[in-house]
Write a structure and sequence with these properties.
The protein is an alpha+beta fold and 108 residues long. 70% of the residues lie in helices and 13% in strands. It has 2 domains: 3-68, Winged helix-like DNA-binding domain superfamily/Winged helix DNA-binding domain (Arc Repressor Mutant, subunit A), CATH 1.10.10; 70-108.
């Protein structure tokens, strides 16, 4: 996971596209109609998302169909998991400290 990969999702329209693709693979035209964005803009955003690894494209007749690239989300989940472990450890230490403080308050 690198900054470029995450930066691709920072743009609101690209994030909307990713959220829309969560349902099913879609063509550029379908995305443009649903999100009310001009096709050239959608194509530009899809190119950035593709280069960052968030979406993949496959041809179907005259169309290009875009779908989410599962591995990118698996990588994101793994990266986020490192932060979960960090914060869970902090919360456990805080719980222990609070329990200790509570005991100290109850001692005569």
């Amino acid at each position: 996971m690198n900054a470029t990969t995450l930066t691709a999702l920072a743009e609101p329209n690209r994030l909307r596209i990713v959220e829309y693709l969560r349902g099913n693979p879609r063509s550029v035209g379908e995305i443009a109609l649903q999100l009310v964005i001009r096709q050239p803009q959608v194509s530009k955003h899809l190119k950035i998302l593709s280069e960052a690894g968030w979406v993949e494209v496959r041809p179907r007749a005259q169309q290009r169909i875009y779908q989410l690239h599962r591995e990118a989300f698996d990588d994101l989940e793994g990266w986020l998991q490192t932060f979960r472990r960090y914060w869970e450890g902090n919360y456990q230490r805080l719980d222990a400290l609070l329990a200790e403080m509570k005991e100290d308050d109850h001692e005569p």
